[in-house]
Amino acid sequence: MADQRRSQQGSQQQGDQSRSRQQQQFDSGSRQQGGGSGSDGRLADEIRPHQDVVDQSGALVGTVDHVDGDRIKLTRQSSGDGEHHYVPLSQVAGIENDQIRLRDRGDASFGQEAGN
Questions:
Q1: Rounded Cα distance, 71 and 8, in Å
Q2: What is the pLDDT of residues 29-42, one digit of tens each?
Q3: How far apart are CA 113 and CA 115, in angstroms?
Q4: Which of 40, 63, 102, 114 could cross-link to 89 by cystine, CB 3.0-4.6 Å?
């Protein structure tokens, strides 16, 4: 009976470790889906100059100049008015195929703040 209990405890510990590894894998992969305030920093580390920023449907919004605090600064060349525009990191849904994908809002100017 004691051997059976030890075997059950060992199986339970292995199951707990497996769930822990799965959670770690999920957490490390969640940056692709995230975009909430907890993952903004991790996303910011992966955003590079000249990456395309697209909306949920894949339409080009602009091109990354650089990350400026909690915002993505878009290049002037990718803007219709020749000005820099900004997209808050909180509006990033994820990074897919080397593109920054924004959350869907159904608004052509979604997330774009004008600036210099």
A1: 51
A2: 434 433 344 556 68
A3: 6
A4: 40
Better pLDDT: 28 or 112: 112
Kindly give, in sequence order, each residue whose CB lies less than 8 Å from that of residue 57, ignoring residues fewer than 6 positions away. Answer: 104
pLDDT for res 34: 39
Instruction: State the first-to-last Cα distance of the chain, in angstroms, to the nearest integer.
Output: 75
Distances, alpha carbon 23 to alpha carbons 29, 46, 69, in Å = 10, 21, 29
3-state secondary structure the chain: CHHHHHHHHHHHHHHHHHHHHHHHHHHHHHHHCCCCCCCHHHHHHHCCCCCEEECCCCCEEEEEEEEECCEEEECCCCCCCCCEEEEEHHHEEEEECCEEEECCCCCCCCCCEEEC
Q: Which of 81, 87, 116 is nearest to 103 (CA)?
A: 87
Share of the chain above pLDDT 90, in %: 45
